[in-house]
Design goal:
There is one protein chain. The protein is an alpha+beta fold. It has 2 domains: 49 residues, no CATH class; 141 residues, Jelly Rolls. The chain has 2 helices and 11 strands, in the order αβββββββββββα. Strands 1, 2, 3, 4, 5, 6, 7, 8, 9, 10 and 11 form an 11-stranded antiparallel beta sheet that branches. A hairpin with a 4-residue loop joins strand 7 and strand 8. It starts with 10 loop residues before the first helix and ends with a helix.
Length: 218
Amino acid sequence: MVLRPTHAFPEWEKGSLIMKIRTLAIYFAAAALICLVSSVSAKADVIDLESLLGPSTFGAATPQTLTFATSSGTLTINGGSVLTNTTFLPADETTVYGTTNCCGNLSTITLTFASPINNFFFDLINGQVVPETFIVSDNLGNSQVFPNVPSNGNLGVALVSFATVGNVITITTSDPNWDFFIDNIGFNQPTPGVPEPGSLALLGLGILGLAAVKLSKR
């Protein structure tokens, strides 16, 4: 005996159902991809110091306070000096903001934002001939230690990411002969090269939606 289904969809119902599935899959994929693109396009605040110009040595520089307009209001940076094409720094040969134990500079670089930020990151450049340990803190008691940043003779630059929720950030070291620089300062966005989980999820949803469209065409 051959068993037959008690109900079979007419061909026109099958076609209508396939069209609905295909339409929903297209909307699903488009929405996910639009959200992903929106999250990427919101990444605006990365401060590159290349627009500034300074001498190549601390001896020829004077301490400077920098101000920048950002999406979180005015950013003020103090504690150091602007140097361009600074010597003995193979890690970065363009413009940086740094401090050393001379010339009126402080042992701490302080960044003050007009409003709280999150996911602060920057290039930290060690000016010493030995590896150094640095401490990054905010005004709400959050602090993180970054040990063994390579020496300047060994490409002494590290991409530092700090999940702050405050509006004042300090960067310092316990070395009494401090010598370090910062550049490429970013915040309120994922650290470069580290996709945020939400973006990965949206990308996955978009791919699944496109796969569903392809399958519905078969």
